[in-house]
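Researcher:
Attend to token order:
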Amino acid sequence: MARTLLRRRKKSLSAEDVMVSDRPKVRRAVTAAALGNTMEWFDFGVYAYLAGTLGKVFFPSSSPGAQVVATFATFAAAFLVRPLGGLVFGPLGDRIGRQKVLAATMIMMAASTFAVGLLPSYASIGFAAPLLLLVCRLVQGFSTGGEYAGATTYIAEYAPDQRRGFLGSWLDFGTFVGYSLGSGLVTVLTLTLGADGLESWGWRIPFFIAGPLGLIGLYMRLKLEETPAFQQEAATAAAQREEGPRGEEDPVEQARQSGKGRLKEIFTRHWQAVLICMGLVLLYNVTNYMVTSYLPTFMTVTLGESDTTAQVLVLGTMLLVALAITTVGRSSDRWGRRPMFMGGSIALIALAIPAFLLIREGGILLPAFGCAILGLLLVCFAGTAAATLPALFPTRLRYGALSIAYNISVSLFGGTTPLLASFLVEKTGNPLVPAYYLMVAGAIGLVSTFFLHETAGRPLRGSGPMVETHGEAREMVARSRTEAGRHARDVWLRLWRPRGGRNASTKDRKRGD
């Protein structure tokens, strides 16, 4: 018993164990990471709203319906290579650093998006035009496979423990701002240039804008430093190598540090965290793609609303999410990640059908309320995910594990949401099928949240505490020493009280006699 208690004695924190964040560096990290997400979703909004025009440019020999299908099939191809990008960029980010990989993904994403605007049409080079479009989309999808997980990891490892939810929410703020800018730009071009002008040359403008945007993002990312958590992990690994025989790394440890060794460790030792991550990503992305991608088609094709009405309602929903997302992130710091996800999951199960019933009513007012309900449900997950997901994994595996789990879930469930929802509505003839789909996602998210450990205000796994000021660091060290002293006293009393108790009871019995 004595050995057990001594092994469990609490060690106090030293000043070196507590990291103090640099506010200017944190601001640069958040801005650079969010800008990449803005660019990704700018492209998503542009491509979704230009689907009909791109179909005419690259697939002119097909019927109008087949043109849209072919365009979205090319768009969906990007989701097929996202897991591959996660398998490559994620473990690489754990080995060489987050900043280098994020700079590489920005270059690939900006170049491939800009290249779409340079592509010749089908009328110019024939079948090679859609093939080149497919290649650009595959490069975009491959780079995106390392983008979101890397950006969330970078922000989470830079953010103070008490503000990780608020700072992380700015990443997804960039998501919805990017989508709104892309779709809004296409709407303005459509109104000003008309269908003919847009088809002739106007469709290239949004893709050209992605070039300067990408250069700005690349410049900002090249100016970033590596995260404190990764630097600490790298220093620890270097010290362990130096302590080895002749400074050489042990073969077993060398295999463990390799890409294959890291993948094996992810799926053997952290499979529960991978499943929880996939469940939460499913919940977030099914709701996200249902609102951003399928909802405009549902209102125009299934309900017969005009394109302008659908676009205005979805854009309004995106603006609502963007305005509320940082408030939700701050609330998750105060109340916890689990309550936000759990409350959102329960609300999604309860309110999905009423929301779609309101959208079916027609007009503007009632559908706007229905869209607002879906937007507020979405923001519960969007404002919390960036702080929750990186905390599931330890520092040395965080980028790789999150990239793999996130992209597999997005590819299997998020990217297929518009396709499956439209297919089920067509086969069943029931316009409430999308609501049932959301309810299933809510149930899966609720189960995943049940197994989620609360991480709000706590250090990331494998990292020391992160605070905002040196005063907070000194206070934390002093509090830790006090707690360690109390714990040591309790251990001492538990070790010696039984003997003292027996002596005291013997003396009491003698006195009684």
In short: The mean pLDDT is 83. Residues 74 and 134 are 6 Å apart (CA to CA). The beta strands are 19-20, 466-467. The radius of gyration is 27 Å.
